[in-house]
Structures are given as C-alpha cells and as structure tokens.
Amino acid sequence: MVSIPRLVTGQLLMLGDNTTNFEVQKITEISFRSDWWEHNPGTGANLVWMLQIELYRSLATNNRTGIEQGFTRMWQDIVVSPLGGQGIQNDWSYHFQRTQLLSEFVGGVSDSSYGLAMMDTATHNLTVKRSWHFYDDAVMALASNLTVSTQNKAWTPLASRLLTTALGVEISTKTASYNTIGPYNDKLTSRTVAIWLDHGLGPYTRNYSYIILSNVKVQSMPELIKRYNDDEIFSCISNQDLFHAMAWLTLRRVSFVLRNNTTTMFSSQNSFFKINTRLNDAGAYLFNEATNDLSATLSHPTRINRIVTINIDRIGYGQGCIVLSDLATNVMIALPSSDPLLGASVTVTCKKNN
C-alpha cells in the first residue's frame, strides 16, 4: 500500500517535465492508494511515508493545497503525547504500535563546578534507578530497586575496551563482527579487558553503590582509601528506591535525586559539617556552602514553569531566599518557563549576611 506509491511518486518528481500526461495521470491514481485521510495509519513511519507520497505528488503536479495539507499534518505529530499514548513521550523517546515502558527520569544537574546525572532504566525484564554524583576526583554511583524478573543474570559494566598496554591480570582475546550493530560484516580480533559487577541470577531486587576513580595508580590506593574514610564519604549515602543522595562533607556539598513529589528529609553530619534538608518536589538537586554564601541548584527532566522549594537549616538572604523563624531558609527555585529549556539547571544563591 505504501512502497509502490512512494517509489513511483519519487520518480515522477525526479523526472519533472519529462513525463507524459498519461504517466502523470496513472502515477497520481496509484499514489492515492496511500491517502492517509482514508486509511488512518495513526502515527509513526507509516504516516510519514503516506505524507511523503502526498508531498511528492503535490510537488510534481504543482498542487499547493496538497503541499500545505501534508506539512500541516506532519507537524501535528510534533507534540508530547499523553502518558501511555503513541508518539513523542515526555522523555523525548518515540513510542509506536504498542505500549512501551517509559523512563521518565533521565537527565542531570550542574552548577558549572560539580554535577549529577540520573537514569531510570526500564526494560521488560529489568528495571533499575541509577545516579552518578560527580566530585573532584571521584564519581559515586548509586542504584536502587535493581529488579530482574526472569532467571537471567544482570551485569553492570565498569570497563569494556580494547587493551593497548599490558596489565598484571589475565587478558582475553575476542573476535566480533560489526554486523551485530551495523550493516558491515567486518571481523575484528584483539586483546581486550573487561570489568563488571555480577549481580547474580534473577529473579531478585537489589541495591548497590560503588566509587569510580580515574587516572589512579595502584600504589596510591591505600592513601586514597584512608582519605575517603577520614572524609567519611561512605557514611553519608542514601540509595533508597525513590531517593538518592550523597554528601561530601569536607567539600560542604550535597547532591540529591528525588523521583516523586513527596516530602523527604536528608540529614548528615560529622565533626566538621552538618546539613539537614527537606525536599517536597521531584528533581535533581545540588547544595553548596561557601564562606559567605550558600546555593541550591535544581533541574527536572520533564517539568517546566513551576516554583520548587528546598528547606535548608541555614540562614540565607537574597532573591528567592526566605528566612524562617526556626533558623532555616526556604530556597525558592523557578524552573524554566519554556519547552526549549526543559531540563536546564537553575541556581539560587543566598548570602549569609543581610
């Protein structure tokens, strides 16, 4: 219904004036086998192909009405669909032909110095909520509700790459073909190194956390382990189902991911830093305290045009900073108001002295 009309209308457009009236008439008749207003293809590629046929035919026959109609109908699909519907979803994926799992929380937040990324993975056999908290020389990876619903193994790859230098471990030689990921059947054999976390045979539901260090020599590991233990970074971590948080107390920084709109408290302290916060809205958050000010940064992957409040046990003054009677401050952050800025990070800074 689509292939032949698309082929012949493309040829009609290419040939231009080098066609007879009879050929134009017959190709036009063939093209109407794919009129989208009669066959109702819904959305997706079938609709695009039918519109392509209409545009080819209209351009070849100088039919301005058909051109306007085709482009108008095509642009009607460039909207975010209701949850569960076909078309563009609020995470910018495209769902077609059947209901698919939707990962709503994919994105990140940054204050230009530090950052956080999050991703909710959803397949039909595995779901997991993950976040990565980026600091000076380390990345803390957190995961919650890692659920495998079938009797299969799940892995978290930490490294999988071609090996160009020798290591004091067993190295394997692998052969693979590009035809598993593309159109070419070229084979490659090379030495590789692979490192992963084996979560075991499902079904199960688990959490995990680990730290990633880059450009670190083996000889420096004892010193780093001692420093991180002294900084108590492993004692201020939360990887609950809907809430991930990490506080690096010596840096006076905290990063959060809250995945639903529910009141959530996070507290952490040691001998040199203490922080208590209350969140009410979903989003990705960063908190930073300096000598003269404190700041909160927020982003949300699917929401715009909303005021979000963060309650912090500090006193801070300035635009968006409301001091409360209990020696705390509500930091009011306005999410972007337009779709092109969806997911952008917004920072509010409060001065410690009025």
UniProtKB/TrEMBL annotation:
GO cellular component annotations of the record: extracellular region
All copies of domain Polysaccharide lyase family 8 central, residue ranges: 98-166
GO molecular function, a single term: carbohydrate binding
Gene Ontology biological process terms, A to Z: carbohydrate metabolic process
Regions annotated as coiled coil: none
InterPro entries, per database record: Chondroitin_lyas, Gal_mutarotase_sf_dom, GH-type_carb-bd, Lyase_8, Lyase_8_central_dom
Family: Belongs to the polysaccharide lyase 8 family.
Protein name (Swiss-Prot/TrEMBL): Polysaccharide lyase family 8 central domain-containing protein
Species lineage: Eukaryota, Metazoa, Spiralia, Gnathifera, Rotifera
